[in-house]
Predict the structure of Bifunctional protein FolD.
Amino acid sequence: MTSTGTTAQLMIGTDLAAEMVAKAAERAKKLQDETGVQPCLATVLVGDDLASATYVRMKQNRSKKAGIGSRSVVLPAETTTEELVAELTKLSEDPEVHGILLQHPVPAQIDERAAFEAIDPAKDVDGVTMHAFAAMAFGEPGFRSCTPGGILRLLEAYDVPLEGAHAVVIGRSPILGKPVGMLLLASNATVTYTHSRTRDLADIVRTADIVVAAVGKANFVRGDWLKPGAVVIDAGYNEGNVGDVHFEEAAQVASLITPVPGGVGPMTISLLLEQTVDAAERLR
Amino acid sequence: MTSTGTTAQLMIGTDLAAEMVAKAAERAKKLQDETGVQPCLATVLVGDDLASATYVRMKQNRSKKAGIGSRSVVLPAETTTEELVAELTKLSEDPEVHGILLQHPVPAQIDERAAFEAIDPAKDVDGVTMHAFAAMAFGEPGFRSCTPGGILRLLEAYDVPLEGAHAVVIGRSPILGKPVGMLLLASNATVTYTHSRTRDLADIVRTADIVVAAVGKANFVRGDWLKPGAVVIDAGYNEGNVGDVHFEEAAQVASLITPVPGGVGPMTISLLLEQTVDAAERLR
């Protein structure tokens, strides 16, 4: 595909995310100055998956830079569901911990849902509990799943009209596709959930004003799947730093598009930090 | 609109519902014979709305016929959120109560969500809690919202293929539109949520293999909104026993359609009774 001369505007998450972190850091400092309490994020890593370990370390580093304390729990790969639930319950009850992040995926022998549910919703700053999901769906107070919440912030920052827009979500995972659809619906978009069993996927995507790709397949969404002028959110992050959208093709059709990396990714971690400070303020 | 000669097959809920109730009654009897425990549904009615009182009485009568005990709580119209929450908490803790039904809508001064959340998910046989919603969305164990769950039963009974079908849900209430969409998604349908802010609603409905009307407006969905052969589920029940779908028009285009009354309605109450017996068996 050769360039047609028009190219989409990039939706850059990096600067917006940096602003969010700066504000969270200010609030963390204020809280500590006024009450002596430093917001604390507990990270729980099970097993020795390299990518997971890298993510956790990155989150800890960012926390530190924002003046947020961190507690690191690392459990062996053969940890049982019961052991992990016990650990998460302990952190949920620990008054010095304000936010809990269970790095996922967890090893296959663990019931991931049971583990997530052991996190007190008041400390669920990653928005993974059933309570968090229902709260997003019903507009009730609660923490947002970080990537979906970050995507909504990005759409707002770029003044994308959501009311009445047709948003097509590709993928239906419990912490990405499903909640982002519910948040878009709460913003009065018309929302279509698509997935691996969807027929005529490209035709459906072609009706979208907003496309959220959350499918985990490199370059899955092609340029000719898009309606000219569509807003394209790429929540994928596949091997080789490649998103779920074929960027070069899509950028010639879309009006706005998130780059990978530098689009959705930075928003995710910033929301995690922001929500950790929220939790500390509320739990204080 | 004059008849074209082809008319949709009716999806009758009445017989299927009667079968479900008969099975629930058998199980209730067996439980009582074996353990001495009679399943018990507590109904809570706030205020003196005539329609609500009628619904509650009907549910109690049906329970009785199925060998399910009932406990009736009637609170004055000026009940506060705190008072209602206290009552629901008491019922949640009462070992002799297995299922709790809060008749809604509740009077305007009450925080309905707070009231619903006072119901123990283990007794939430009407499927109104946030836990029930997330369980439906994630395929986790829990009770289904009765109307959505009843609709799925009806679709199954009439062998409507759901996998890959495009289902358009009109309406997004927490106990009807949102959960029915999640149940359809869990059955591998492609699901579009539409609502009052949706643009070009008729055009979107026209793409549906399955239409679920849950909007509460008499005769809202017209015949020319439907794709020929579509399956039409009318979850509306408006003044004058009229559904949300213009029945005469729709029946000439659809392949299958629920009548009002006698379609979705009977399924709702049957699932309530079935889930009350489920709860009693589990809580015993």
